[in-house]
Structures are given as C-alpha cells and as structure tokens.
C-alpha cells in the first residue's frame, strides 16, 4: 500500500469547515483513499473513501486532486464531537486481491475543535 | 444493530495467565479481524478470518491464537500473557476481505 503523509495536528473553530490534507504521491492506479477517525481511544470509525472522483456522504466530503497525489477531507461544520485523530489510508481496490486484508494506520492528524 | 461488540472492556492479568477476548458482529459480515494498538501507535493486525472456517496470521501473531466460532463470532486467546501484550485490542469486520472495515469499542488489557 502507498505511504501517506499527514500533519501531526490541526485546530479548527467550532462551526467552521475543517480541512484535513493528506499526501499520497506514490499512489497506484488501483488504490483507493480511505479516511477513518478515532475518538479518544474508541474503535476507529470509517468516514469515507474514494478512487478519483470527489465523494460526499452524511459525515464528510473527500476531494482528490486530478493527479491523485493528494486529497483533503472536509468536515463542513465541525463540532466538538469531531475532535479526534484522523487517519488517511491508501489501499488497493476493494476485493481485488486476497491479502488486501489489513488497514495500515499511520499516526494520523490530531484534530482539535476549539469552542 | 449493535455492530461489532467486544468483551470484556477492561482486563488485568498477571504474567503467565491466559484469557480469551470475545468479538461478535451482527452485520452478516464474512470477514473479521483482530488488531492491537499500543500507546501512541497505529493499529497492527494480529489475525484475520476471511470467511467462516478460515483464519490467517497478520503481522504480529506470536503469542496469540484465534477461533472463528461461527459467522458472527471471532475470539482471540492469549495462552500465556506477557507484559509486552499490554495493549488495546480491537476487533473489526467487513463484508468481504478487503472491503471497508467496521470496528468494535476495544478491550484494554494490562499484563502485570
């Protein structure tokens, strides 16, 4: 799986949009970008994933650059409950090969929402 | 749906003791996983089960055994606990191997 680089920490004011960047310059054509978060040592929570098109769900939006070498997770209206460590993970196409079983979590970005 | 549940939430063991961590999912998923997370670190895969009746080693399997009891349940056993196994253990499941994984709340294990 391709390596990802994220800032160690970020702050965001409550009610504002939180934009979390991720660099994945060695991403391959069949690799997806996934985002998970971990709130205060709870189990990681799936947020969103995408291949090359921008994606949006009820939690967040994912913007992937045209060259796919970087992406941004957007939490449109951050709340205090969004304070967490956010992990950007790159992995191969879902179900494409047995052995694609693990998620490789780095150290992530610690996002703090400021009241 | 409860999703993925784990028991116990907390456990303290003495070196050499054994115990089994339980995990169950109600999402009719085929694949299940056990990870450990040490302080300040990312998660590392211990064992996984791609489907009922199969189990395979992950990156840190030494000192652990697993049992896929049925489609819903996947247990992790420590036969002779060591202080190096002090960690938070997470169970996860996914529809199929390689698909999006959903995690349980974790078991915090301390080995003295």
Q: What key phrases describe this protein's structure?
A:
heterodimer, A: 115 residues, mainly beta, five-stranded mixed beta sheet, four-stranded antiparallel beta sheet, B: 112 residues, 11 strands, 0% helix
Structure notes:
The complex is a heterodimer of chains A (115) and B (112). With 115 residues, chain A is mainly beta. Helix content of chain A is 0%, strand content 45%. Chain A contains no helices and 9 strands. Chain A has strands spanning 9-13, 18-23, 31-38, 45-50, 55-56, 61-64, 70-75, 84-92, 109-114. In chain A, the strands form 2 sheets. Chain A has a 5-stranded mixed beta sheet with strand order 1-9-8-3-4, with no helix packed on it. In chain A, strands 2-7-6-5 form a 4-stranded antiparallel beta sheet, with no helix packed on it. In chain A, strand 5 (55-56) and strand 6 (61-64) form a beta hairpin. Chain A is globular, with a radius of gyration of 14 Å. With 112 residues, chain B is mostly beta strands. Chain B has strands at 4-7, 10-13, 19-25, 31-37, 43-49, 56-57, 64-68, 74-78, 87-94, 101-103, 107-111. In chain B, strands 2, 4, 5, 6, 9, 10 and 11 form a 7-stranded mixed beta sheet that branches. A 4-stranded antiparallel beta sheet of chain B has the order 1-3-8-7, with no helix packed on it. The mean pLDDT of chain B is 92. The A-B interface holds A 34, 41-46, 49, 87, 91-92, 94-98, 100-108 and B 4, 31, 33, 40-43, 45, 48, 50, 56, 58-59, 88, 90, 92, 96-106.
């Amino acid at each position: 799986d391709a390596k990802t680089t994220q800032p160690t920490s970020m702050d965001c004011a409550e009610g504002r949009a939180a934009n979390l960047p991720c660099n994945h310059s060695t991403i391959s054509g069949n690799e997806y970008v996934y985002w998970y978060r971990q709130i205060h040592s709870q189990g990681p929570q799936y947020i969103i994933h995408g291949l090359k098109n921008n994606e949006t769900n009820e939690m967040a939006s994912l913007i992937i650059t045209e060259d796919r070498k970087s992406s941004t997770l957007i939490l449109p209206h951050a709340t205090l409950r969004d304070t967490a460590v956010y992990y950007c993970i790159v992995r191969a196409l879902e179900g494409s090969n047995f052995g694609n079983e693990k998620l490789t979590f780095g150290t992530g970005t610690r996002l703090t929402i400021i009241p | 749906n409860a999703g993925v549940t784990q028991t116990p939430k907390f456990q303290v063991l003495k070196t050499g003791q054994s115990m089994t961590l339980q995990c169950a999912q109600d999402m009719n998923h085929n694949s299940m996983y056990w990870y450990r997370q040490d302080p300040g670190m990312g998660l590392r895969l211990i064992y996984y089960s791609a489907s009922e009746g199969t189990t395979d080693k992950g990156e840190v399997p030494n000192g652990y055994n697993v049992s896929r009891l049925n489609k819903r349940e996947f247990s992790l056993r420590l036969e002779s606990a060591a202080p190096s196994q002090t960690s938070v253990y997470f169970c996860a499941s996914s529809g199929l191997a390689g698909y999006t994984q959903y995690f349980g709340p974790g078991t915090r294990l301390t080995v003295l």
